[in-house]
Design goal:
binds adenosine-5'-diphosphate; 34% strand; 6-stranded mixed sheet; alpha+beta; 6-stranded antiparallel sheet; 9 helices
Length: 354
């Protein structure tokens, strides 16, 4: 049972690269927070500062009300699960899970009970006498989690724990982590570059770019109300389509279409009259039928949906239709947009509809 406060955290590496700028986050007891963003945005650095594996250059880290900013890792009561879960090959699964407790010279009986309990939670009871090489990748990942669970840490940290697994196993292990989180009611910080993992796992997502937090919110908040162009383009797959449009006499105008604004849109966009803005439309918010013309260049059937990629006079577009389509390259399909997202071109911030 633990809460975590990251207050104005900065990280400047020795070579003067600033990897994290003014990171602020309050993690509630039992919350699963996912840090997501492209490679190099500062996610791992942030996690490693929490673990104590990197010095904190500025700001404070508070765990359960206690300032641990300068505390060495072993005293922070935190357990970290890495992507390369590096089990000890010569030890059994039991020994791998018991190892850190043995190092701490805990009572043998208690270690035994903790390992059995963790193995039970993770479905590893029958594997305890095996060596890591006899286990599948997914099982090895579970052993790595077991090593963290036996320590009953205040906070669990996960650094891209699924990236070594194949796609099918990733989905299954993701669901296991969710169940584990519910069962242990543990406070977790989880780093990934994969927006699907973020959407499916998180209580709240922290989306980062170039060392800066872009938005913190529930998966639905980030999907429905992205704060800026970066979050809008990063969360959601396939990504949101963006169109440069002019607000002109109650209409949205560009080479590809002229659309009448609704009353709400007119009110929200009043100050942009005569100016360019960015319209964002998710592929799933494009509907077959309408007066916007798309020339198809590919048709990908995904079963229940079809991704149709195409071009207009100026913009490229990806549509996700809710049926099996059979468009051929060169076909013209007429579509309409369910419009929800507008962005200020200069600040890249979202323009909220009233
Ligand atoms: P992410 O986890 O989002 O991929 P990182 O936190 O690993 O990003 O890296 C953030 C930035 O800090 C990158 O520009 C990276 O090159 C830089 N960086 C990471 N580790 C070091 C280091 N030990 N020394 C110098 N720069 C580093």
């Amino acid at each position: 049972m633990s809460s975590l406060k990251l207050q104005h955290l900065d990280k400047i590496y020795e070579n003067n690269v600033q990897a994290v700028f003014d990171f602020n986050l309050d993690v509630n007891d039992g919350e699963l927070i996912v840090l997501v963003g492209p490679s190099g945005c500062g996610k791992s650095t942030t996690l490693r500062m929490v673990a104590g594996l990197e010095d904190i250059s500025g700001g404070k880290l508070i765990i359960d009300g206690k300032d641990v900013t300068a505390m060495p890792p072993k005293d922070r009561d935190i357990a970290m699960v890495f992507q390369n879960y590096a089990l000890y090959g010569h030890m059994t699964i039991y020994e791998n899970m018991a190892f850190s407790l043995m190092l701490r010279k805990e009572n043998k009986n208690e270690i035994h009970q903790k390992v059995l309990a963790a193995a039970d939670i993770l479905g590893l009871t029958d594997q305890l006498n095996k060596k890591p090489s006899q286990l599948s990748g997914g099982q090895r990942q579970r052993v790595a989690m077991g090593r963290a669970i036996v320590r009953t840490p205040k906070v669990f940290l996960f650094d891209e724990p699924l990236s070594n697994l194949d796609a099918k196993l990733r989905g299954a292990t993701r669901r296991e982590i969710l169940l584990l989180h519910k069962r242990l009611n543990a406070t977790m910080l989880y780093v990934t570059h994969d927006q699907t993992e973020a959407l499916t796992l998180a209580d709240r997502i922290v989306c980062m770019s170039m060392g800066h937090v872009q938005q913190i919110g529930t998966p639905l908040e980030l999907y429905d109300s992205p704060a800026n162009l970066f979050v809008a383009g990063f969360i959601g797959l396939p990504p949101m389509n963006f169109f440069d449009v002019e607000v002109k006499n109650g209409q949205l105008v560009c080479e590809d279409f002229t659309e009448e604004l609704t009353a709400d849109e007119k009110a929200a966009l009043r100050e942009y009259e005569g100016r360019q803005i960015t319209l964002g439309v998710r592929p799933e918010n494009i509907i077959e039928g309408g007066n916007i013309c798309v020339r198809v260049f590919s048709n990908e059937n995904l079963g229940q949906t079809t991704l149709v990629n195409g071009t207009m006079k100026k913009h490229k577009i990806t549509c996700k239709f809710r049926e099996w389509c059979n468009y051929k390259a060169g076909d013209e399909v007429m579509v309409s947009f369910n419009r929800k997202h507008f962005f200020d071109k200069e600040t890249t911030q979202a323009i909220r509809l009233g």
